[in-house]
Design a protein that fits this description.
- The complex is a heterodimer.
- Chain A is of the alpha+beta class.
- Helix content of chain A is 35%, strand content 26%.
- Chain A has one domain: Sandwich (Jelly Rolls).
- Chain A has four helices and eight strands, in the order ααββββββββαα.
- The radius of gyration of chain A is 16 Å and the shape is globular.
- Chain B has two domains: 88 residues, Elongation Factor Tu (Ef-tu), domain 3 (Beta Barrel), CATH 2.40.30.10; 168 residues, Nucleotide-binding domain of ferredoxin-NADP reductase (FNR) module (Rossmann fold, 3-Layer(aba) Sandwich), CATH 3.40.50.
- Classes of the chains: A alpha+beta, B alpha/beta.
- The interface between A and B is medium-sized, with 26 and 31 residues.
Amino acid sequence: MIEGLDRYIREHPFFAGLAEEYVQLIVGCASNVVFKAGAYLYRHGDPADQFFLLRHGRVALEMSAPGRAPVTFQTLVEGEIIGVTWLLPPHTWSYDARAVDLVRAIAMDAKCLRDKCDSDHDLGYDMMMRFVPVLVNRLQATRMQILDVYATPA
Amino acid sequence: MSETHAADPMVPDVVRVVRTRRELADVWTLEIDPGPEGFAFAPGQFNMLYAFGVGEAAISVSGDPAEAGRLIHTIRAVGNVSTALAHLRPGDTLGVRGPFGHGWPVEAATDADVVIVAGGLGLAPLRPTIYRLIAERSRYGRIAVLSGARSPTDMLFRSELERWSARLDIDVEVTVDHATGDWRGNVGVVTTLIERAAFDPPNTVAFVCGPEIMMRIAAVELEKGGVAGERIYLSMERNMKCAIGHCGHCQFAGDFVCRDGPVATHARLRRLLALREI
């Protein structure tokens, strides 16, 4: 199982170029997970104790408010990563992640990885350099969504 | 100056609406009979459409360049003129001047991969290019059509996107900014589709049309992915009046969009797009 997981980690675009010693270090934090269509990877308020490397399927990130249908603000597909909230306290999800169809993913134990990053700052720096572009891209996408660029000009 | 159909580019031809189609809540497509000589145009060119008694507006041609006997325009009703045009009915007349401007250089994509990035109504000026690419499919490498809309109900040309998507020789990806209910497709801004698309960056030509902010980000993403700015084409929009580079209403730094555009490379536009003063 571990042997297969290290291959998935090595081949996943998010970990492209990760040094082999780090692959071997973090594979112990990884596990294979499968979600049926409609199942939730996590719900708003749950502890952010994992993040996911998507291998197959589509995941919808949703927010809901009382009296309103849930709004999907982003979908993620194979090769992408789900969840950045695990990085910083309070380590709690602030939105729902729902499998749109059958989803196969690698779940990374967040506490396990945080501990490894704490004890090896080079690994921590490597992880940060991988997560920051994800955050920046999502911030930029959110900016475009807020601007509502397709709306009819007032 | 582009070669127009009339002897005097400032004098409109009077033409008649043959058919109309409501595409979205505020978007209509007009099929116009251009007369016995037909109407030749290059993908990406625009016409000045004149709603008699109301005014003129620059509207891109959204039809098939191979069908000179049908002049097609897709119009969003946002102001007095565009609303008057959009609400024309079969049998009504309007004035047409054009075609004007530099369109999409489709021939520059020969033997190359092609990425089309459309946002909202930006798919309308790109549709003639897609028709041309499909008609000449063997001349090009991989073709990716990436289209974004505000929501599923705001998706322009949805049935055509579905038809193109069913082809095995074109990759079509559609996304919406947000969705509720039973939408099972992509959600997120259209620029996020660029990273997912399959193309060979050094041998790719990109055509991008949509709101200026979206085009700016799309061009940056394409360049980040390895597509040269000289091979990324954007279609600019400014307030055009004369359409022949005389009046200056559409001045964009040292250019007139009507005469020097509307299509230009990102290499040329990059610096100007960052200037809020223009």
